[in-house]
């Protein structure tokens, strides 16, 4: 056997891994294919015209974008702190940040109530001073989505920061650049693809958020009913509409993710 043939076989996928790999691929792809096959395409016009799909979709796009922006504002500095070698309590802080990844979303909504609800730790004094309460408002939708999406951005940006070449930052500091200038002019361009990838993940997670939203924000059409909530409500009353709305949400998610990836995450 030639050396090239042996190297090609060694680099190939072992036969024992092919079957589970194909099963895993089918497990991910077949449900999406099922949506497309079973969707009532002949009723598309009637369902979309007679449902709350468009207000729910518009609200989902607005709130998920706002949640992604808020996650960027809060998450990039937090990731920077986690990635610094001299930071204290990083392990404990990282563990706390990852809790929303494994926490049942409904529990996250209850937790938001305990802090920002009308009788919550921060929500009660806010309500007494201003008469404003977060629950069951569009702001509650954004906060719920940010709560579950923020860890995705933090972990993505932290990984990019750890992989970045610190010599550029050290050189800029040696030349007398202030820490803020180093971050904006050197660090941020270096980790730009990682930040974009984290923002995309956060946006996608916010768009699909259900449990924390329905618990903390409710399910009021035109006010707090996002697309996942509209699908859930349609599933109880009109399964055909639920299928079609699911396809619509799937199409929007794939289109936006593909657009953002091609534009900003190509080299990540």
From TrEMBL:
One of its GO terms (cellular component) is plasma membrane. Residues 57-260 form the ABC transmembrane type-1 domain. SUPFAM superfamilies: MetI-like. One of its GO terms (molecular function) is molybdate ion transmembrane transporter activity. The chain crosses the membrane at residues 12-37, 57-83, 95-116, 136-161, 182-204, 241-260. InterPro entries: MetI-like, MetI-like_sf, ModB_ABC, NifC_ABC_porter. The keyword Transmembrane helix applies. Keywords: Cell membrane, Membrane, Molybdenum, Transmembrane, Transmembrane helix, Transport. It is found in: Cell membrane. The keyword Membrane applies. Pfam families: BPD_transp_1. It is a multi-pass membrane protein. Belongs to the binding-protein-dependent transport system permease family. CysTW subfamily. PANTHER family: MOLYBDENUM TRANSPORT SYSTEM PERMEASE PROTEIN MODB. Part of the binding-protein-dependent transport system for molybdenum; probably responsible for the translocation of the substrate across the membrane. NCBIfam families: Mo_ABC_porter, modB_ABC. This is Molybdenum transport system permease. It comes from Microlunatus endophyticus.
């Amino acid at each position: 056997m030639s050396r090239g043939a042996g190297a090609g076989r060694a680099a190939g996928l072992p036969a024992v891994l092919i079957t589970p790999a194909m099963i895993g691929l089918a497990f991910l792809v077949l449900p999406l294919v099922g949506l497309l096959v079973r969707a009532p395409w002949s009723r598309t016009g009637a369902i979309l015209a007679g449902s709350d799909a468009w207000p729910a979709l518009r609200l989902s796009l607005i709130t998920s974008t706002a949640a992604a922006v808020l996650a960027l504002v809060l998450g990039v500095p937090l990731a920077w702190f986690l990635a610094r070698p001299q930071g204290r309590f990083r392990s404990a802080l990282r563990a706390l940040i990852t809790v929303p990844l494994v926490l049942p979303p409904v529990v996250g909504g209850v937790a938001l109530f305990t802090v920002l609800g009308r009788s919550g730790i921060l929500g009660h004094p806010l309500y007494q001073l201003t008469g404003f309460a977060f629950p069951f408002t569009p702001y509650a939708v954004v906060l719920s989505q940010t709560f579950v999406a923020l860890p995705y951005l933090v972990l993505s940006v932290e990984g990019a920061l750890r992989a970045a070449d610190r010599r550029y930052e050290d050189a800029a500091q040696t030349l007398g650049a202030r820490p803020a200038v180093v971050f904006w002019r050197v660090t941020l361009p270096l980790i730009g693809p990682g930040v974009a990838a984290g923002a995309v993940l956060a946006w996608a997670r916010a768009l699909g958020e259900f449990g924390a939203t329905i618990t903390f924000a409710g399910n009021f059409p035109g006010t707090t009913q996002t697309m996942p909530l509209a699908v859930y409500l349609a599933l109880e009353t009109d399964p055909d509409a639920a299928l079609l709305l699911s396809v619509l949400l799937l199409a929007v998610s794939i289109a936006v993710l593909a657009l953002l990836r091609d534009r900003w995450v190509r080299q990540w």
